[in-house]
Design a protein that fits this description.
2 copies of one chain form a homodimer. Chain A has 220 residues and is mostly helical. The first copy, chain A, has 10 helices and 2 strands; from the N terminus they run αααααααααββα. A two-stranded antiparallel ribbon of chain A has the order 1-2. Chain A starts with a helix and ends with a helix. The N terminus of chain A is likely disordered. Chain A binds a DNA duplex (30 and 30 nucleotides) through helix 3 and helix 4.
Chain lengths: 220, 220
DNA sequence: CTTGCTATTCACCGGCTGGTGACAGGTAGG
DNA sequence: CCTACCTGTCACCAGCCGGTGAATAGCAAG
């Protein structure tokens, strides 16, 4: 189908095709802004994340962001509020029908679940990258929301299992989760990490195997 | 000592204290620019790293950066060139008088050395954070220089030791180095990582212990 | 001194940013 | 009808950014 002459004309001189008659609906607009913000952050990263960009993405005036969210800070906080539900939506909260008999079973499963969840969620990756790049109030709030949600998830999954005596589980687990986060971040940006290619499914299987081996090496 | 009145005045109305009579010395200016760039990147991060900021930091006109380095890209490349020497300056190239008998001995030592070296070098930390936040040509070059230098160091230290059969050392080592990098980055920004405080020397001892445990768990 | 080269600075551009005040348009109540 | 409110838009500001062309200041040789 050829575009009609007036469409071409409109495109050329930048008249919006059909004014779209933006319905006057605050709730919908708020949602559109929030969605645009999350989409922008996920796709473009925090670098060019600003009031103007979000407004452009939401197709509305930036003034509305100030009105409805009190500026970028408030908007970021709203994103953080969603993070709580992220964990619940994206990571299974049960044991997947398995019986986790030992702390090692648990940690292996948590590590693999977290790896996959993070791999599947660009927004979360951007936030993690943001966390290690800046230390503004904005990021701190976001970071806190994320870590809280994550800690809650782990706590729920842990059940009554306790780490083996003589092992500083907090420190070890911090290293394990740090490894996962950096691996996924690096892969998301450059498709590899420390010489390990991370593109194909096979690559990721290798990584998962290594991860399991590490967890099992510590927790048996 | 109280600042003299004219110092106060100068500070207030922003007249440079003593025109400084910048000597006409290209080599010195180039060095000043490079130093300013590294200092800026290390102290402020890549966020506000730009031509104007570097020129301000070096106390010269940005035009000189274009002339001498061909713009920011060239300057970044010059920083990358220094990275090669970083490893040699900051990480011992010998075994520290120890005899590394096993691959496990080797990896434990490498991990701990790398941890300390990264902790001590804010510039390197910023670069790593940059690497996982952006994927521009600039960063790719920098990243490549860094990983090359690192790989070379590891290769030199490795000597004739080989990993145990049946273990995907590339993948496992990638996870270990990823863990170290994320841990140090997170600590540098927020003083903690995944609930593990990382401020005092004692905190870091815990981390080091966990790291050793992980390495030993895999490589024995 | 004059000529020429080089190091350095200056002035200016367009474009984007965050932020704000005034205005337009639809919708409800009196 | 008019009024009052709410949603959305527009125009404009100062400030910074990267980038560039032209002018200036110091040195060195003829």
């Amino acid at each position: 189908m050829m575009p009609s002459a007036d469409v071409v004309l409109r495109k050329t001189i930048e008249i919006p095709a059909e004014p779209e008659k933006r319905v006057r609906n605050r709730a919908a607009t708020e949602q559109a802004i929030l969605d645009a913000a999350k989409r922008l952050l996920a796709e473009e990263g925090f670098q060019n994340f600003g009031i103007n960009a979000v407004a452009r993405g939401a197709g509305c005036d930036k003034q509305l962001i100030y009105r409805y969210y009190g500026g970028l800070d408030g908007l970021v906080e709203a994103i953080g509020a969603d993070l709580g539900s992220w964990v619940q939506d994206r990571i299974p909260d049960d044991t997947g029908g398995m019986f986790l008999l030992t702390y090692g079973d648990l940690m292996e499963r948590l590590a693999l679940l977290f790896l996959d969840a993070l791999r599947a969620d660009p927004l979360m990756r951007r936030i993690v990258a943001w966390e290690v790049s800046e230390n503004t109030e904005q990021v701190r709030r976001l970071s806190e929301a994320r870590s809280k949600a994550l800690a809650g998830w782990i706590e729920r999954m842990r059940g009554s299992l306790t780490p083996p005596k003589g092992i500083d589980a907090v420190a070890v687990n911090a290293m394990i989760f740090a490894a996962i986060q950096h691996l996924v971040l690096s892969a998301g940006v450059s498709g590899q990490c420390a010489g390990l290619a991370l593109k194909t499914a096979k690559d990721w299987e290798k990584a998962a195997t290594a991860l399991k081996r590490i967890v099992r090496g510590v927790y048996g």
